[in-house]
Design a protein that fits this description.
About 35% of the residues lie in helices and about 25% in strands. It has about 500 residues and is an alpha/beta fold.
């Protein structure tokens, strides 16, 4: 006997949702779609039916609230064509409002139940649908006298549809006055849609016969219908790669890093504003392009035009790298992007375009898309970083801290433990002049130089000096010359 979890599946018509369901719905069962108004329940059902039509199946939409004309029009407006879908339109009509149906002797439920049952059984008998979508089933409450009768009728309705070979999806209207807990118990699975501070979400708390991907997944409604972005599960992804050093192309920096950053590691470049963090990260991209490798840069805090002009002015050929296909730059709007959607974009770059270096500039901007505190930020960055490491991708996070000079801070976001490597830049005052220094704070895989060096950005690019052995207290922001250096100066 085939295990239930390994049964053949049918698609919901939404790739991301099928992924969450480990392949789709189990045929011949009923599934509840619930959530507040406007979260996309009906649209999800139309995808389910459209997919059936595309597979040569017979499909039926039993609409109990919106008219068929409105449903077809609304679906068409988001790119979901319902041609080939049969309708059983049981929605209220103007005539029902105009007619005087006081039901002096019999209740409305007694009068209307029999025509409803006849309409459904006639349609099912004639069409023999493979897929049925009922929207919303809670309208049946008006055909019953109490909650017990409603549950009995709803269970009988679902059993009738599935016993005739249909896979059923149905929606509910959950309100404080009429909760849909009873419907959750009677369904084989529950798909929950919600609208939260982090954006629209979808999850599957119940699914008989198989495991699902847990967690809150992101959902968006586009011009092409519903798109679902599953939560990133890094342990589900891995590939073999060769561990090797990835140089920056600046000899002094590579000396400090004992050859460079290792492939398949996460690095953080930190420092205050204007110190050159992005430029330093771009050096690794530039060197990767020279080796024929593809990089992608996500700009969360700087415009594309400013980035391009600034780097072109110091000899980093951004336009040339883009034209050659070795660099792809994405200017991001974090408030319009969920972490799940961003992770999907990154996966596409890595798995479909062979990207080998990913740089995120910067962590503060990315946190806006997370729309949560540091704990949530760390969780998302950990998952993204772990996925990229498993895929052999070199990762660079740019992190800005607020101290221009003074008290040293490795990172501002509390994510230093995620990094295999930490390279920091700092402003310091020397003899009344503002200078920059570079140092390596952490490197897990190899030894590294523990000295600080002068760092500057000239018209010819990044320039790094010799180790600064004659100064003390550099990270305080106001270093002092060593006694020996001062003595030599006095002489």
């Amino acid at each position: 006997m085939t295990d239930e979890g390994q049964q053949s599946r049918i698609s919901t018509g939404i790739d991301g949702l099928d992924s969450i369901l480990n392949g789709g719905l189990v045929p011949g069962r009923s599934y509840l779609v619930r959530g507040p108004p406007g979260t996309g329940k009906t649209i999800l059902g139309t995808h389910f039916l459209k997919n059936g039509v595309e597979n040569g199946e017979s499909t039926l939409f039993i609409n109990l609230e919106e008219s068929e004309a409105d449903i077809r029009k609304n679906s068409e407006s988001i790119g979901v064509d319902l041609a080939g879908v049969d309708f059983l339109d049981l929605s209220p009509t103007a005539a029902a409002f105009a007619d005087d149906q006081s039901y002096d002797i019999l209740s409305a439920s007694d009068v209307e139940k029999e025509p409803f049952i006849d309409a459904v059984t006639d349609k099912i008998s004639s069409l023999e649908p493979d897929r049925v979508f009922v929207d919303p089933i809670t309208q049946l409450r008006y055909l019953t006298t109490d909650a017990h009768q409603f549950r009995k009728q709803a269970i009988g309705f679902m059993e009738y549809l599935t016993s005739n070979g249909a896979t059923v999806m149905f929606t509910s209207q959950n309100t404080p006055e009429t909760p849909d807990d009873d419907l959750q118990f009677m369904s084989d699975g529950t798909i929950e849609l919600d609208s939260r501070d982090v954006g629209p979400t979808i999850d599957v708390p119940k699914f008989r016969g198989s495991e699902t991907e847990d967690g809150e997944h992101a959902i968006t409604i586009t011009d092409a219908g519903v798109v679902v972005y599953p939560q990133l599960k890094p342990l589900s992804h891995a590939r073999e790669f060769t561990t090797e050093s990835i140089p920056s192309g600046v000899p002094e920096i590579d000396d400090m890093l004992n050859g460079g950053l290792e492939r398949g590691t996460v690095s953080i470049i930190s420092g205050p504003t204007g110190v050159g963090k992005t430029t330093l990260g771009t050096q690794f991209i530039n060197d990767a392009a020279a080796r024929g490798e593809r990089s992608v840069l996500y700009l969360f805090e700087e415009s594309y035009s400013t980035f391009r002009e600034r780097n072109e002015s110091i000899g980093i050929p951004v336009t040339e790298m883009e034209s050659a296909g070795s660099l792809h730059i994405r200017e991001m709007e974090p408030l319009l992007l969920s972490p799940q959607e961003f992770a999907h974009q990154v996966r596409t770059e890595v798995e479909e375009h062979g990207t080998e270096l990913v740089m995120i500039d910067g962590i503060n901007g990315y946190q806006l898309s997370v729309q949560g505190g540091k704990e949530e930020l760390i969780r998302k960055l950990h998952a993204l970083g772990r996925y990229l490491k498993n895929m052999g991708v070199t990762v660079i996070f740019i992190d800005e801290h607020t101290n221009v000079t003074g008290e040293f801070s490795a990172t501002n976001s509390g994510v230093s433990y995620l990094a295999d490597n930490i390279v920091f830049l700092q402003h310091v005052e020397v003899d009344g002049k503002l200078q920059k220094v570079i140092g390596v704070l952490k490197k897990r895989t190899t030894q590294f130089e523990h000295m600080l060096r002068k760092f500057e950005i000239s018209e010819n690019g990044v320039v790094v000096g010799e180790p600064m052995t004659d100064l003390r207290g550099i990270l305080s922001g106001t270093p002092e010359w060593s006694n020996m250096s001062q003595q030599s100066s006095d002489e």
